[in-house]
Amino acid sequence: MLFKYLLLFLLIIPVSAHTNVSIFPSNQTVFINHNFTFQILVTPDQNTSGMQTNLIYNNSIINISNISDGGLFQNNVFFYPGLQNKSRIQNIVSVFSGRNSITKQGILANVTGKSNSEGVSYINLINTKLSTPNSVLIQNIVSNGSISVIYHYEDVTKDDKINIFDLMTVSRKMGICTCIEDVNRDGTINIFDIMM
User: Fold this and answer.
1) In a designed cystine with 145, which of 85, 120, 123, 150 is the match (CB 3.0 to 4.6 A)?
2) What HEC string does the chain produce?
3) Cβ contacts of 178 within 8 Å, gap of 6 or more
4) pLDDT tens for each residue of 78-123
């Protein structure tokens, strides 16, 4: 009988939640030499008045050009977009002025950049810290992301232009191989690849 009450007691103890910090969208695919955007999204589980994080990525695949305030802490805020150093942006900071706080989901920062070579770049947040109005650290769970960079399948010459040279390259390979010239990826080079 005692075991039954103990089990019931354990079931009604509230489970401690955590503030979630995530990259949104978590995974995206872009073409080479194209712009991309993602957000740092925060879902607090308690009164939150400030946040600091570092962003790391693969700068041989993507370049980040701008970080702007996403409005998480509304208008009365000090926002610092961080200091960029190769593949790291150090100390992205947003803090309420005064003792205000938020409890609803919002965007800490909007991040924009451009892809520069084929591959997959991680988008990781490290040393992420959130604080209550009383300067108490808030436990958080971080969900990182990635950006996959691909070339246009139709750009078989990989010169970042889809033109007559791509058409000529595909035409010369008809029926010969199943390789980069197989634009629609159906295993055969034929008229459908030329149409694409």
Assistant:
1) 123
2) CHHHHHHHHHHHCCCCCCEEEEEECCEEEEECCCEEEEEEEEECCCCECEEEEEEEECCCCEEEEEEEECCCCCCCEEEECCEEECCEEEEEEEEECCCCCECCCEEEEEEEEEECCCEEEEEEEEEEEEECCCCCEECEEEECEEEEEECCCCCCCCCCCCCHHHHHHHHHCCCCCCCCCCCCCCCCCCHHHHHC
3) 187, 188, 189
4) 999 999 998 999 999 999 877 788 889 999 999 999 999 889 999 9
